[in-house]
Design goal:
The chain is of the alpha/beta class. It has two domains: 5-93, no CATH class; 95-209, 3-Layer(aba) Sandwich (Rossmann fold). It is 41% helix and 12% strand. It is built from nine helices and six strands; from the N terminus they run H-H-H-H-E-H-E-E-H-E-H-E-H-E-H. It has helices at residues 11-20, 24-29, 32-41, 45-61, 76-79, 114-129, 142-151, 174-180, 201-209; strands at 65-68, 88-93, 103-105, 133-136, 157-160, 185-188. Helix 8 links the parallel strand 5 and strand 6 (185-188). Helix 1 crosses helix 4 and helix 6 (114-129) packs parallel to helix 7 (142-151). The protein starts with 10 loop residues before the first helix and ends in a 6-residue tail after the last helix.
């Protein structure tokens, strides 16, 4: 069932429900009228709203835009991964790329040898020249190479970052991360200042791989 745009949750409401622990499937189906009722019956929800507003205001100051899973710009491909879909993503850059028709995900080993690194770079460059938006994880090794290959021909790339967007790890990649944002986009499921938990490696790879639709 398609929700009327006027009935959708505000971003602070969606983030508050995420912080409260509501599953993404329930957040997707909750409208603003139901949220108003929840405010009376869900103990502590107001405190989560206050925290969400504070987070969003601080992120907005440094150019981070947050999208809920109900927003038109939220990546359709992420919605297809079901319960692993983040209820809210945080972005910096060209939001329209999130639903680009021609995308390819290039993900590989962090400890890649020169052959693997060169191959990822070449794939990033070649697909970019064919008009694809290259998606990768801005990690060591093949991910970095894929972004660099794409950027080498002046094309657009989506960097799926593990940490909050105010943190660049490794710090040496800050230049690449900056290059991704003006015409491309950086995106994360983590809020500002948040570090990616080492135990969640599968989810770390799942976001960029959801854009894998090139031949």
């Amino acid at each position: 069932m398609t929700m009327d745009p006027d009935d959708r949750l505000n971003i602070d409401e969606a983030l508050a429900l995420q912080l409260y622990g509501m599953p993404v499937a329930e957040i997707r189906e909750t409208d603003c009228h139901q949220f108003d009722v929840m405010m009376f019956f869900y103990d502590g929800l107001q405190e989560h709203v206050d925290v969400a507003i504070d987070i969003l205001e601080r992120q907005e100051e440094i150019g981070i835009v947050s999208l809920s899973c109900q927003h038109d710009f939220f990546p359709r491909r992420l919605l297809e991964i079901g319960d692993d879909c983040p209820p809210v993503i945080h972005c910096k850059g060209n939001l329209e790329l999130l639903n680009a028709e021609k995308t390819v995900a290039i993900i590989g080993a962090r400890a890649a040898d020169k052959e693997g690194y060169d191959k990822a770079y070449e794939l990033g460059r070649r697909y970019a020249e064919e008009g694809y938006v290259v998606v990768s994880g801005l990690a060591l090794g093949c991910d970095k190479a894929a972004h660099e290959g794409c950027l080498s021909v002046g094309s657009k790339t989506i960097a799926i970052v593990g940490n909050g967007l105010d943190i660049c790890h490794p710090k040496a990649y800050s230049t690449i991360m900056g290059c991704c944002s003006p015409s491309g986009i950086s995106a994360s499921r983590q809020i500002q200042h948040a570090l990616w938990p080492a135990t969640a490696y599968r989810l770390r790879c799942l976001m960029p791989s959801s854009w894998l639709n090139a031949p």
